[in-house]
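I hope you will forgive my troubling you with a question about protein structure. Here, with my thanks, is the record as I have it:
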Amino acid sequence: MKKTVTWILIADGARARLVVKANNIDGYKQVIDTDFITDNRPSHEIGTERPGRTHDSAGSARHALQPPADPHREEKRHLAKRVAAFLEEQRQQKAFERLVVIAAPQALGDLRGSFPVPLQSMVAEEIDKDLTMFSLNDLQDKLPELIETNH
């Protein structure tokens, strides 16, 4: 019987890692050599040095303009879109058959909103937990406890 290839996406808003259950050994290995990483500096450090200024509608006072969106938050959404695009490309190449998503709650929502419908149908399980701080070695013990072992 052929084993189902299950990829596991581990993410928070600033980084994402893909791992797979290794067929020939017990344990997990990383799917690609590098993690997806975004600019995780505070919002006030991302973008321009100073916000634009405007004049008061009545009088001579000047006020700083607020950016239309929080740049830090936008970086996190952009990361989710990059990960989703990569996963969709890999899905089309039939690199995996199931996807388990383990992510911090806000990142989970961003990812869910970025996944196209065909990719959404590959998601077998979603777990709202942040495991990005753990090394691949540490994940060897944690993942089996969290994930259904029917792959």
In short: Residues 79 and 91 are 18 Å apart (CA to CA). The chain has a mean pLDDT of 80. Helices lie at 71-92, 105-114, 117-120, 136-146. The longest strand covers residues 15-21.
